[in-house]
Predict the structure.
Amino acid sequence: MAGSVNFSNQQWLVQSLDQNKNGMMDELKFAPGVKQEIDQNQDNQISKAELTQALQSDRVEIQQGQVSKSRGFNVFVNGLETLKSVRATANSGVSNTHHWTPNFYSDDTSRDRYHKLVDTNTKYDGAIDKMESSLRSIRDMTEGKTDSTSRSLNIQAKTTLQSTQWKTWTARFQQNTSQTRIWFDDYKPGVKPPTPSSPSNGSHTNDPFAGGNNSIGSDPHGKDPFAGGGKSTDPHGKDPFAGGGGSNSNDPYGKDPFDGGGNNQPVIPNDPYLDRLTPHIREQEQILTNLQSSYDTMNNTLKAIKEQTNDLPDLQQSASATDAKISQAFANLTGIENSGKTPQQVASNIRSEADQTDSKATGRTGPFAGIGAGVGLVAGAAIGYFAGGQSIKNAAIGAGIGAAASAGVGALIGNGIDSGYKSEATSLRSLAGRVESYSPAADKQTTLQSNQQFYGNLFEARDAHDLDAARVVNNNISSIQNQVSPVVERSAEILNAHRKY
């Protein structure tokens, strides 16, 4: 990453360096030729204004108490752009692949199961191919890098490719050598093969109402299975559940006329290819096991690499955010100093506002209860009168119930309004106390010190070409931002109070 980092508070830096408060920068040393270059009035002294102007125009820099010609604050971190590419590659490798698991059902034929496995394995193979490509790219991008993060990612990519190589190769070899048979040519997913009991009509069994051997063609209505087999000696016909043409004693449960002419209720369709396909199914299951193992290993590695590259040390962004936070703190503190009102005056105005707010809480519980009772009395009487059959007695009962209920609701409303005013008054008095006790000088000193620390870290950022060193500097700059954030919050609240009251 190459670019310039920000520093906007030169005047405050110079003020913090003027320790004897004489307006001259005699605390600092000057490199040869620098003092003459920035001494505008040629009095052989450098004032705060002269040094501030030189800093703002980026002609000089101050490091370890010496003023020298500026080298700027451009930063370059070796390997950072590479790791950004690694993160994008890892994220692409994870997001562009998905996990497939075949769904098997109890009525799947062997051909259904076989083709589901083949389809799943093909998808796994394609996903693994993409992840292998991502891991090779990450391995090549991080090869020879010196920072610990790049070295770690390089090792992870290499190890994953090596550990999955054998299983992936074995699965692909099996896929390439696996041979299908001619009986798959007519395969259609979900379409069951014909059963031996009815080769002529495919998926249906014989019509039990066709009268045994009689065809429907000879009898347009089919033969009634309850007609007793055509014997007239039995006026009620023969029981079709009596076990075929024999007596009931041959089969205590009788014969099921719906069993298709001798088959035992084919809940699961006949599978003529099961024996021949079983070895091929086992082979595809082994291929799936190897591909799943490689997929999971590669996928987990890419996710880990993505997580490790999420928090990269972006010095430009951190420096810009910290500089803005320090500038906001100085702006708030300056606004408080220039408000023209003392903290005591502001606090007094706030307390007056609190008293006025408190006076609005006038005990509304009783009046609102009375108003509610009156409304409830009228409404309850009307409801009781009409609902009770236009009875005066029921109207009176309804009036009492309505008045009591509405009085309670009214009391709650009145109490809620008063509580709101009282809570607001309490908050205002608390704010008045914070305004009186606030010390802008303490927050200003904290901000001045933070500004100095930030300026010193910019030199470290400029020299932190190694990613590990850049991470340390980035953390230091972020900690300075965290140090100033409470100052910004406190000063903003006090400044708003000075402006409002």
Observations:
- The mean pLDDT is 80.
- The radius of gyration is 45 Å.
